[in-house]
Write a structure and sequence with these properties.
Chain B: This is Imelysin family protein. The complex is a heterodimer of chains A (385) and B (362). Chain A has 385 residues and is mainly beta. Chain A has helices at 13-29, 33-39, 286-289, and strands spanning 51-56, 62-67, 73-79, 83-88, 95-99, 105-109, 118-121, 126-134, 140-147, 152-159, 166-172, 178-183, 189-194, 216-221, 227-231, 240-247, 253-259, 270-273, 280-281, 299-301, 307-312, 317-322, 328-333, 337-343, 347-352, 357-360, 368-371, 377-378, 383-384. Chain B is mostly helical. The chains are: A mainly beta (385), B mainly alpha (362).
């Protein structure tokens, strides 16, 4: 592994140069030699949409890959552990990649500048949950964190505008296990999905409160941290951990859940809501629902915001929903498919655990495999950069 | 009561330890059988076939006659067929240093190879005619898929060696590709033969052995590659060829269909995946209730392969006939079923797991 810095070790220049060595090696064998040699760090050279996703490499190490719209690797940044979600700045010039829970590292990357990635470690007593987002002006990053001794979800607020990242404060999420978060269109509030599951890094993947969990989706005022709205599902769905979200063109928040109850049941898994409207559950027809193992991976809207895609990696399916009506428009089979990103006006890019990156023109088409880097497993989430 | 609990605790610890001791090399025999019974012979065959490509191209480029063209067509087919027997081994020496992508750049839904060849030809970049420089170029320019584009016309005729202003340049490029392919094929075979190389890592799992810590992880590496191989045949090769309906079928999307080897490559992949699975010899590891699984798998492989063998014309020419289209459509169903039987039933019976996101999501 090129970069072996531990979680709390600052990123060294030498390590970064080693990272660049990795990039240079990539340039020698990849397709976009010129684009990489000059273009990776020079935005004007890149006239194609870019995507970024964490992945497991063939040798078992973890990295972030930045690729073009044909799925070809342009750049690779080694990670010290498994990645998960990312915050992408509003102008798409920067990104912050978070460790998968209960990881404690995050990396702030400026892919268009010859600048060292900055490593952020969670403060003592906290770990990251894997997701974050930028403020509307791009100066702040909000990161979901676990205050595990106090058993409460927190949004860490980081100023990323200066030379060094500063943690300038925090907000309470009003729940346990905050997972995904979204900035509202006006940039004034955050929507946070409190997954509801209590965990402790002492028992990294164990769930401690399945019987009593109470997930919610909350709207927080970014000015003062006030809870503007809190939505929960009916009591009988309290074991549906609300985890990943997307916002459609109508301002509705779509949330996908992971059911912690009896797996022989097929509860609803996808709901939409607004700040003032309670969640409305969607219907998944029985024959489809029974194969999903009640587990939604990613929730992403297409660029025009009229279709929302939800991946179900345990069922090997991606479902597509009409933002306007909440209807299921269709499904596609993608074995171990999880990562989703909007591409072009209405299409989706889909990544899977067997290395495939597929382009889906429309829900009724079929996923066209664009690339499949050998030995790679794409991790849960992919983002347009 | 208290004593009993302690005794039970000791007993269960003992069982646990025995269990892990057994588990540590429980699958090593399967791993060894696949390496010795399939991977080493198949990679050697590919290396041997690939080594015949440079002289075949030299003969064709010296004098293009009906005979040298026919020799090239046959030689290319044999290389592609041998490649189909190893291209699903997407781990270890096969994929190191971008070898697999360099041997064949697939999938190529956006026509990257064609575009890069055009751009390189426009500049008449001489470096692609030198094998040592070619190996530093884009992987799309280096292998069998690029060779197919320059050696065969759209209609499947051999055009390499034909008179024309770029003849020598293209011949030089073809020769460099052939040497590059032969070199990579030889490296893959040599590395797989190496008793101290990657094979040793698969055969000696342990805590200090990278991602292969147990024999279960070693056999899963192989097993999951076979499943991925089936997924590739279906999702990456057949579905884009078939499109959503016969009117939208695109024969050129089938790998090696330009040279008329689309069917041969598909058959080679399926035969290779099946042979690797047979070599693993999982039968003795299966409980009585699961003993039906191998027979069912081999029955379905036989069906799928027979179905392909019954296609009697090059797929490029015959795809829009209802019959060929229907046969490939049927193959999709067979492969779906095969994948389920292997990835769900057989993996379940053997206690193997696959699926990165499905297994441990978040």
């Amino acid at each position: 592994m090129l970069w072996t810095a531990t979680n709390r070790t600052p990123f060294s220049r030498r390590a970064f140069l080693a990272g660049l060595g990795g990039l240079a090696a990539l340039a020698g064998t990849s397709l976009s030699q010129s684009a990489l040699a000059e273009g990776l760090l020079d935005r004007t050279q890149l006239d194609v949409p870019l995507f970024v996703s964490p992945r497991r490499e063939a040798d078992g190490s973890f990295a972030l890959s930045i690729m073009d719209d044909a799925g070809q690797d342009l750049a690779r940044v080694p990670l010290p552990g498994r990645g998960h979600g990312m915050a992408i700045s509003p102008d798409k010039s920067r990104l912050m990649a978070f460790a998968r829970r209960p990881g404690t590292f995050a990396l702030l990357i400026d892919p268009y500048q010859r600048k060292e990635p900055q490593v952020l470690s969670s403060i003592p007593g906290r770990h990251f949950y894997g997701h974050g987002c930028f403020s509307a002006d791009g100066r702040l990053v909000y990161a979901v964190e676990n205050d595990y001794e106090a058993v409460r979800g927190v949004i860490g607020v980081y100023d990323v505008s200066g030379r060094e990242i500063q943690r300038i404060g925090e907000l309470q999420t009003g729940g346990i296990g905050p997972h995904d978060l979204l900035l509202t269109d006006d940039g004034k509030s955050l929507v946070v999905a409190n997954g509801g599951i209590q965990t402790h890094p002492g028992k990294p993947r164990e769930k401690l409160n399945i019987d009593t969990m109470t997930p919610s989706v909350v709207y927080l005022d970014l000015n003062n941290g006030d809870l503007l709205a809190s939505h929960a599902l009916e009591k009988d769905l309290h074991q549906l951990s609300l985890r990943h979200m997307a916002m459609d063109s109508m301002g509705q928040v779509w949330v996908g859940g992971q059911f912690e109850g009896d797996l022989s049941l097929t509860p609803p898994l996808v709901a939409r809501m607004t700040r003032d409207e309670s969640p409305r559950l969607t219907e998944i027809p029985g024959p489809i629902a029974s194969g999903l193992e009640s587990y939604i991976g990613s929730v992403v809207a297409n660029a025009s915001g009229d279709i929302v895609a939800t991946s179900a990696p345990r069922g090997g399916k991606v479902m597509f929903w009409s933002a306007a009506t909440g209807e299921l428009l269709g499904t596609q089979d993608v074995i171990d498919g999880c990562g989703l990103a909007p591409i072009d006006e209405s299409a989706f890019l889909i990544s899977d655990g067997r290395g495939g990156l597929s382009y889906l023109e429309e829900p009724s088409s079929y996923p066209e495999v664009l690339a499949r880097p050998a030995g790679v497993a794409w991790d849960n989430h992919m983002f347009a950069l | 009561m208290r004593n009993f609990l302690i005794a039970a605790a000791i007993l269960s610890t003992a069982c646990f330890e025995t269990g892990t001791a057994l588990a540590a090399d429980a699958h090593t025999a399967n791993v060894r059988q696949v390496i010795e019974g399939y991977i080493r012979p198949a990679t050697s065959t590919f290396a041997r076939q690939a080594s015949t490509l440079p002289p075949t191209i030299e003969a064709l480029c010296t004098t293009a006659t009906a005979q040298t063209k026919a020799d090239f067509v046959n030689g290319y087919r044999e290389v592609v067929t041998a490649f189909g027997g190893i291209s699903f081994l997407r781990f270890g020496p096969t994929i190191e240093d971008h070898r697999l992508d360099s041997l064949a750049f697939m999938p190529d839904a956006r026509g990257i190879t064609q575009r890069q060849i055009r751009r390189t030809f426009a500049k008449k970049d001489p470096s692609i005619t030198d094998p040592s420089q070619l190996s530093d170029k884009s992987v799309a320019l280096q292998g069998l898929t690029a060779l197919q584009l320059i050696a065969f016309s759209k209609g499947g005729e051999v055009v390499l060696g034909d008179a024309g202003e770029n003849r020598d340049y293209i011949c030089g490029y073809a020769s460099a590709i052939a040497q590059n392919v032969a070199r990579i094929a030889a490296e893959i075979a040599t590395d797989w033969q190496d008793e101290n190389g990657y094979s040793a890592r698969l055969l000696n799992p342990g805590p200090d052995n990278g991602q292969i810590r147990t024999s279960k992880e070693a056999i899963e590496t192989i097993f999951n590659a076979l499943v991925t191989g089936l997924i590739i045949v279906k999702d990456q090769e057949l579905l884009p060829t078939l499109g959503t309906e016969i009117k939208k079928a695109k024969a050129h999307r089938l790998p090696f269909s330009r040279s008329g080897d689309g069917r041969a490559y598909l058959i080679a992949e399926l035969q290779g995946i099946e042979a690797a699975l047979r070599a693993a010899h999982f039968e003795p590891d299966l409980d009585e209730e699961f003993s039906w699984i191998p027979g069912s798998i081999h029955f379905e492989f036989a069906n799928g392969i027979a179905n392909l063998e019954a296609i009697d014309a090059p797929i490029r020419q015959s795809l829009k006939d209802g019959d060929t289209y229907q046969k490939l459509g049927l193959l999709v169903i067979t492969i779906n079923s095969l994948r389920d039987t292997i990835a769900l039933e057989l993996a379940g019976a053997l206690g193997l797991s696959g699926g990165f996101n499905a297994l441990d999501g978040d």
